Description:
This protein is α+β, with helices and mostly antiparallel strands. The chain has helices at 5-16, 26-52, 64-72, 123-131, 295-298, 335-349, 353-370; strands spanning 76-80, 84-85, 88-90, 103-109, 119-120, 143-147, 150-154, 171-176, 186-188, 194-196, 209-210, 218-219, 224-231, 244-247, 254-260, 271-278, 288-292, 302-303, 308-310.
Amino acid sequence: MAINVNTVYTTVLSILNKEQRGYLTPFEFNKIATQVQLQIFEKYFEDYNQFLRMPKTDEEFASRVAHIEEEIQVFEEYKSASSHANGVYDFPQDSNNKNEVYRLGSVYFNAVPGTPQIELVGRKEYKQQLMSPLTKPSKSFPIGILKNDKVEVYPKVTTFNPTRATSISDVKFSYIRKPKDVKWGYTIGSLGQYIYDPNSFPILSTSLLVGQDLLSNTTVTSNTVDMTVISGTTGIPSNITGNVANTNGSGSGAIVNWTTDFVPATNPGNFTSIVVSTAGSGYAIGDLIKLNPEPSSNFGGNGTGTTSITLQSSNFSPVNLIQGSTDFEISESMQTEVILEILKYSGIIIRDPQIIQAAQQELVQDEANEKR
């Protein structure tokens, strides 16, 4: 289970005895916390390499190798390419359209049955294999060349018989992604104090889509309907009453106001606005929000039609950068180390060498105990 960012921040402030947050602001904390998480994350791989060379134990809960593997698996991904062109496939990207591959594992050729692993070779080795009838790449034994965060695969799917076009699903990447940046979000209270905002970041904007032509063959009897968006692609739980929309993501709690251009005795045919009145939390770019059941039922009418919207980056608030929080992604077993590392950096910021020395001594002792 991940470490709660508010737990860490309040603990650090209590130890520093600076509850007014005048010496370690949320901005400073977020920068330090992100750096500390990345530092611990990178150390996983160093420890993993060392533990593999040390004597092992099969005792339950005592295996250091198993513990590190458990920590790393949170960041393992298996995704298709983000784009393709002429047999060249780009590494997967995150929601900000940035390369998500931090450490590449294996690449697989999903364009053929069995999804064989692609052997990654250099340009020289590729030329040598291509010239030899025995080692020439085939559907069962494909090879690939890495360049500029892309992989060029041989044989190309355009040379298949029958021929076919390339697709992002032709290639699957197994890799480790980088942890998400830590963020302690807040709102400003009536006295100017910081109030923790537990909502997940990013936050849905209070305005979504306008002028969506999404209804068809539908007669409605209402202009406006508020719907609570819940996770799960279909169905309404028995404990939920009222109008509900579903999402295929993990978000929940948002309330979306759907308004039609309803005129009595006519078929409206479109929405005039779709507005978020309550942001909820946990929604992400690419999530699908779909009316359930059909639009006509939601608006008290009859007919058919399907209504869904896909969340884009523009659907999230770009201005409330202080609001919304992101927890640490490393497990709770690392909470002590996280707090000590943050204290070490905090001592530098507030220019207190005693804090730096105390935190450093604790960290050195903990590391020595782990390596015994």
